[in-house]
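So, is this right?
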Amino acid sequence: MSILVDETAMTDTTKFELALVMPVYNEEACINEVVSSWLRELSGLDINFVMILLNDGSQDQTEDKLTYFASNSRIKIINKKNSGHGPTILLGYHQAVYLAEWVFQTDSDDEMKPGYFKELWNNRQDKDALFGFRKGWKQSASRSFISYVSRVTVGILFGTGVTDVNTPYRLVRAKLLMDIIGSIPDDTYAPNIIISGELSVIGARIYNHPVPHEGRKTGSCSIVKWNLLKAGYKSFFQTICYRYVVNRLKLFERYGDQD
């Protein structure tokens, strides 16, 4: 899949303080309340913001539900073919970095509430990236194992600056994020893991703060059991390839053959 960057976003002279990126998949039961709660929170903080909602080929009534927000100037809705959570996040990032000074990514499942965002926002001035690590996250044995492997892998390959390397509650300076995502392959399963690692490598000023994680109340996780293990392997493989292949190519392009 190729990342299609919104040309109007690239030339838009309006500069927001914040662009929120939210991938959405089969969340008809809660999506309206989730979006509304984020609108209330960000408006209450007096932020000049835009929300980018990416409907990743939902098979339920999510697309119809999102039409409720179609006339809201604070919201950009993208309905796309299903490509998976990671590629959808990347698409959102590629649009968001041209629109705002800061990019925040969160999921649409309502497991991490908007009310904790102000802790990150209020501490951003002397930071480059701020992460809400999942507090009280109840995982299955397989998901817990994959989370552990992801954390150890990033720690070994990149560094240990980010407490929860794949948390879907992250605020990053747009300019910094733009530099990082430019070299992440479009089909990357878990780009947030690589982004966390790259931020550690470059010595970004990182802030970690606990954010309560609540269990899913509606819908169901799209990756379960054996598929979860396969997804974990794919993420592990792609992260290693990025670190040792993509990064080397970046260095070669920058400095050439020094021999």
User: Anything to note?
Assistant: The CA atoms of residues 7 and 146 lie 37 Å apart. Strands lie at 16-24, 49-56, 75-80, 100-106, 129-135, 169-173, 206-212.
